[in-house]
Amino acid sequence: MTLFDQINEDIKGAMKARDKVRLETLRNIKKVFLEAKTAPGANDTLDDAAALKIIQKLAKQGRESAQTFASNGRQDLAEAETAQVKVIEEYLPQALTETEISQIVKAIIAETGAEGMKDMGKVMGLASKQMAGRADGRTISAIVKQLLG
């Protein structure tokens, strides 16, 4: 079952359970999926890799919005946004810990023979591909700098 189909099934479940937050969040995800499917050049398809990128983007936007609302004293809006982010994150793969990221980066450094900061781009490219969807780019970058520096 594709991620798109899973979202459709979960929408039905949220409707039956009368879960407003979950239903609203899933409908928003489906809307963005449909926009991506009908975009020029998409050939009316959406593979799981593209769907996962969309979900990651929505989760990141939601976290940033919640942070903005909280810093502006709108705790009610921040809590609503956080609740939606929790629903979105259910569809993301399990995130890697910093220790796991560090191990992967060490393996990439050994594999590429990277020796210093001049090789950071090479290491970051491979690390970003290997850990796509499971680790934040900033965290990867910090660990690569630490290990190469």
Q: What multimeric state do the chains show? A: single chain
Task: Please bin the fraction of helical residues.
Answer: over 70%
Q: Characterize the largest beta sheet: strand count, sense, and whether it forms a barrel.
A: none
Mean pLDDT: 87
Based on secondary structure, the structural category is mainly alpha
- Percent of residues in beta strands: under 5%
Label the overall shape: globular
Order of H and E elements: HHHHHHH
Tally of helical runs: 7
User: Care to count the β-strands?
Assistant: 0
Question: How far is the first residue's CA from the last residue's CA?
Answer: 44 Å
Question: Low-confidence stretches at least 5 residues in length (pLDDT < 50)?
Answer: none
Write the layout of secondary structure elements.
Blueprint: H1 3-17, H2 20-37, H3 48-71, H4 75-89, H5 98-112, H6 120-130, H7 137-148
Helix pairs in contact: 1-2, 2-4, 3-4, 5-6, 5-7, 6-7
Give structural notes.
The structure is a single chain. This protein has 149 residues and is mainly alpha-helical. It is 74% helix and 0% strand. Helix 5 (98-112) crosses helix 7 (137-148). The longest helix has 24 residues, at 48-71. The protein is globular and about 55 Å long.
